[in-house]
Amino acid sequence: EVQLVQSGAEVKKPGESLKISCKGSGYSFTSYWIGWVRQMPGKGLEWMGIIYPGDSDTRYSPSFQGQVTISADKSISTAYLQWSSLKASDTAMYYCARYSSGWYAFDYWGQGTLVTVSS
Amino acid sequence: EIVLTQSPATLSLSPGERATLSCRASQSVSSYLAWYQQKPGQAPRLLIYDASNRATGIPARFSGSGSGTDFTLTISSLEPEDFAVYYCQQRSNWPRFTFGPGTKVDIK
To answer: A43 to each of A25, A91, B6, B99, B103, how far by Cα in Å?
Structure first.
């Protein structure tokens, strides 16, 4: 069974750093792109970026380039999303999702990680 | 950047009724269009890929159609569990993805 399991909710202060994770199982982790999607409170879905764990090829949405860093450790089948200096506006639910190149869609999703940034 | 527009923003229907949701792209996305369902407190779930193909385990009451710039998601007869928000998503210009703003299907 394909599963993406994300790390737990985080509460941080503005200016702090953060790294959240997404662990894949039940499939060849290095053979599928993993995307990250933001959902701000009460809002829609925004694509942030995508990484190919096989060679760490990473692409970013222009809206998020320079704001976050996406990485992966294929040895433990885990992708990451990190911030070096959080802002209150980073408060959101963050989802990782597996991208199916054959279907051109995100076919499996993690359960989401809620990030709250507040002083 | 390709912009997706969904209409209506909210659709109020009763169980058993037919739901027709629209997604329009600012330029052609060929058939690289997917639909997702999201229920409160849950992650999105893939329903339709390549504009008209049902994902694994998706009931036959869900169908997608369209190509180019105009797409439709149809739910033939609404079940109680179908009341949710529906998003379209395109990946025409790899590696750029965009989502539509969503259509909420609620109970009339």
So the answer is: 29, 12, 14, 12, 12
